[in-house]
Amino acid sequence: MFTLTDETIDAAIDNISGYIVSVVVSQTGRPIEEVSEVFFMSDAYALLCDKKTGYYWDNISEIINKFIAETGM
After folding, report:
1. What is the DSSP letter of 59?
2. Domain spans, the chain
């Protein structure tokens, strides 16, 4: 049976973050270093990391859109 633990959530956040960065890189053509730096400083990432928000369980496309809208990428 699947159990949602802090370790599982942390792994999900790491995977989702990598996916978001790769999608934005492919959509914008910007360097991965730039997108990564901006993403990890963004409010979208802060919300994703806040386990109380449940963003790690939300639609990833919505998080990508939030990040793009927030940063103008």
Report:
1. -
2. 6-71
